[in-house]
Amino acid sequence: MQLKDHRGLEVSTRNTRSLERFEKALDLTTSYFVDPLAEINAAIADDPDCAIAHCLRAGLAVMSSERGALPLIDESVAVIEAPATGANDRERRHAAAARAWAQGDFARGKQLYDAIVVDFPRDQLAVQIAHVGDFFLGQSTMLRDRMAQVLPHWDASVPGYGYLLGMQAFGLEETALYERAEDTGRRALELNPRDPWAVHAVAHVMEMQGRLRDGIDWLSSRQADWSIDNGLAYHNWWHLALHHLDLAEYDRVLELYDTRIRPVQTPVALEMLDASAMLWRLTLRGVDVGARWQPLAEAWAPIANEGFYAFNDVHATMALVGSQQWSRVEDVLSSMERAAGESGTNATMTREVGLPLARGIAAFGRGRYAEAVEHITPARAHANRFGGSHAQRDIVHLTLLESAMRAGNAPLARALASERTDVKRTSPFNWRMLGRALEMQGLAQDAAKARETADLRAAAQQPRREKVAA
Ligand SMILES: [Fe+2]
User: Fold this and answer.
1) For residue 207, how far is its CA from the centre of ligand 1 (angstroms)?
2) Which end of the chain has fewer CB atoms within 10 angstroms, the N or the C?
3) What CATH code is assigned to 408-469?
């Protein structure tokens, strides 16, 4: 009997139990709740030839952004492509896409997932992998436009519809359509409050708009829906910490780091990324992070020289620089130089963004601030090419700004701080940076005014009175 998945797409397995496990694993994957891999392995145990389960397992490995996950892809691709499996055309196309990704051709791999989505707009797994692929490759417009492609083929009666709205919300946010993004994210959450990606999309809107108190309230009030047994929780905690960081509430940021963002020294790249990014932001602000860099650097060590994905390498570099392990820093830079000379998508990412940025971070750590400015400036304009979100890539701009300040390059520091106050006027931090730059230029009155604005902005974002009373 021909079986179909919950969205009406044909699958080759004849094992209904395995298919149901696939559906559960797919739901866990899209909602980031634990543990889709355990569920998908159970589906494969029920039916070792369940091709769609192998498509999901390969997809999970693709979405991990780690070289260590590649053997899983090879294994699942081999099963899907074995004639005895009897995989259908769509499942075989998943295999081809995952294989291209595993071979380092991320761009081609994503193109193949893109094409599956066009032909099968209800293929939720392909949509999810392509969405994450857009994110890894920094393709903001595709984060948005893919959802415009597929949503006409979905409605609220199709299982998983809310998740698509969550993805659309993120795509709209990354293309600065903030109002629509927030509306769409809230709509997704009306359908399913336990959609951490939709929560995350709205948190991004609030971050980009400098609505610090809104962001804190948003994440705090919905904490029970996104923070328990969820693989994205550390990242949503990171977003909460970003808001506190802007308000210079450093004790709270460090508490969140210790208890939520990095409570355990896991070797998971996506988790280590956020830990590095938060400690680096604190370091740029001159906050003493104590002994936190050391264990993070140790956690990064096994994959720091992989040269697999430049975005990871740059964040590993931060940890090694933060812990002042200079010979290891040189090793990472050498690995990245090698990766830059190879073929594949990561070579381009490394050449154009990753390597100059890592060199800039290393120079900053050694106190060579003018050199850091030299390295980072050319990469800044196209930093999107190495992936991540606008909020994550802000670290590029922040590092350049602090480098310009410490290098005594007052005109550049002022120019960069002015960019920030213009686009995010409610941020106390941005006004403080402008104040510092104006002070450097000897404009004491203007500097005092900027500092006063910073104080006003901070006061405006204090907890609302009725909430305090409550
Ligand atoms: Fe994010």
Assistant:
1) 9
2) N
3) 1.25.40
